[in-house]
Amino acid sequence: MVEHIASEVDELVLGIGSADDSHTRHDPFTAGERIMMVTKSLADSDLVIYPVPIEDLNRNAVWVSHVRSMSPTFDVAYSNNPLVVQLFSEAGVEVQQSPMFDREKLEGSEIRERMIVEAGWRELVPPAVVDIVEEIDGVERIQRVSDTDGAAAQPNPSGSTDPE
């Protein structure tokens, strides 16, 4: 996607979403770790890239102004997320969508699920990401935060498996 966008721009502000979240099944890595992954993966690019952590606000009406306050100035937003497209459009920002590239295999949730079961995730990410994930024991982290304590599967004193 970055290579596609690079043909249209001189510089790219790359938003790292949900920067306030980490150590969960959906967001196992910190914003800093994700910035390292992006920066090292794109180190050979001729494009000037500014990775910017963007925290979730859960107040959509002010989200675009929040993004602008955290970012260098930008003229065009690229997103395929319908809510993001709507919010930037309402704020008067030109929005372009990029083509999806092998979405079924390259979607973050698919890669995270493969990490949990340790089945073929390495070939889906750049080598720099593999190095960082291994350096921080990222597979073990996502496996641990994805585990349950088994309480939901344990029978309660009445013999039911309902935890209530």
Question: How does this structure look, described?
Answer:
Belongs to the archaeal NMN adenylyltransferase family. Residues 1-114 form the Cytidyltransferase-like domain. Residues 155-164 have a biased composition (Polar residues). Helix 2 runs antiparallel to helix 7 and helix 6 (108-117) crosses helix 8 (138-146). With 164 residues, the protein is an alpha/beta fold. The chain has helices at 2-6, 31-41, 63-70, 82-90, 103-106, 108-117, 127-135, 138-146; strands at 11-16, 48-53, 76-78, 94-96. The chain is globular. The strands form two sheets. It has a two-stranded parallel sheet with strand order 1-2. A two-stranded parallel ribbon has the order 3-4. The chain has one domain (2-148): HUPs (Rossmann fold). Helix content is 40%, strand content 11%. Helix 2 (31-41) links the parallel strand 1 (11-16) and strand 2. The chain has eight helices and four strands; from the N terminus they run αβαβαβαβαααα.
SSE map:
Layout: H1 2-6, E1 11-16, H2 31-41, E2 48-53, H3 63-70, E3 76-78, H4 82-90, E4 94-96, H5 103-106, H6 108-117, H7 127-135, H8 138-146
Please count the beta strands (DSSP E, at least 2 residues each). 4
Number of helices: 8
CATH superfamily: HUPs
* Average predicted local confidence, pLDDT: 88
- Do you know the CATH topology? Rossmann fold
Shape: globular
| SS content category | alpha/beta
CATH class (first level) name: Alpha Beta
Poorly predicted runs: 152-158, 160-164
Largest sheet geometry: 2 strands, parallel
Strand content: 5-15%
Helix content: 25-40%
SSE topology string: HEHEHEHEHHHH
Strand order, largest beta sheet: 1-2
Organism: Halococcus hamelinensis 100A6
Protein name: Nicotinamide-nucleotide adenylyltransferase
Catalytic activity: beta-nicotinamide D-ribonucleotide + ATP + H(+) = diphosphate + NAD(+)
EC number: 2.7.7.1
